[in-house]
Amino acid sequence: MKILHLSTPDVTLAVRIWENENTLAPTLVMVHGFPDNSLVWQTIAEQLSTVFRVVAYDVRGAGDSSIPKATSAYKIRYLVEDLAAVIDTVSPSQAVHLIGHDWGAIQCWEAVTTPRLTGRIASFTSISGPSLDHAAYWMRQGLSHGSMEDRRKIFNQLVHSWYIAAFHFPLASQLTWRVAFNKWPKVFSPIQALNLEDFPSQASDGHHGVKLYRANFIERLFKPQQRHTDVPIQLVIPTRDKFVTPALFDYLDQWASNVWRREIDAEHWVQLSHPAEVTAYIREFVDFIEAKND
After folding, report:
1. How many structural domains comprise the chain?
2. What's the CATH code of the domain at 164?
3. 253-266 exposure pattern, b = at least 16 Cβ within 10 A, e = fewer
4. Which of 8, 47, 103, 212 is an S-S bond match for 279, by CB 3.0 to 4.6 Å?
5. pTM confidence score
6. pLDDT digits (tens, 9 = 90+) for 210-227
7. How far is Cα 168 from Cα 210, in angstroms, rounded to an integer?
């Protein structure tokens, strides 16, 4: 594994690359969520690098990448520009396969449903992260035209999303992060959150990562855009996720034309708790897409 420091006009991104001896091996680009950094992919990346070329990077505000001060610098459009810079650098002539978790998946949804990276993405595996626009439409449609079961699912998701409201208030956001999130490794199992020994920048990553919520959620909730894609999508859904309920991916076929859905009896950080299963799903999906495109 080697580390590349990629400079863009706005930030410097720390990019980890697991090379493959096969120069024709497809390239996978993995994008982490909150409050993680690219190290969260370590185990899966090592397993997949026997077959593929694997890339993972610290998003802006996390790990060894730059930390913008302004909340507005964390808007999704800038995250997609960062992703585009990584793709253009590591795979300038071939489309890549995206894998995103949590906020990584959220920004990848933006990448596959907007024009910026058209033709540059061969497939997308989404783990515990919806499109914010799709989620907003899901709630609107369910509340206005849905069944009682649809409304129950929406209420259940809102209960699971309690922390998002807290993140929008400066004092409450930091209090929520420090008490409810940053202390989790000492309170729950190492799988439920991240070991501080393995992720030494976690406190900083979480402190700055709350800006992702403050920069994007209100705008997307009240002004969602219709986001369609024909990029092949694989959903990996941990059924016991305490933050992202499976119902958020209901009715996705109105937005995406080619969707695979996998469910795992696991919690939010499924790539840490079930790396073998996630690795197998990614490999099978990418192999299928590559064979289909040959």
Report:
1. 1
2. 3.40.50.1820
3. eebbeeeeebebeb
4. 47
5. 0.92
6. 899 999 999 999 999 999
7. 8
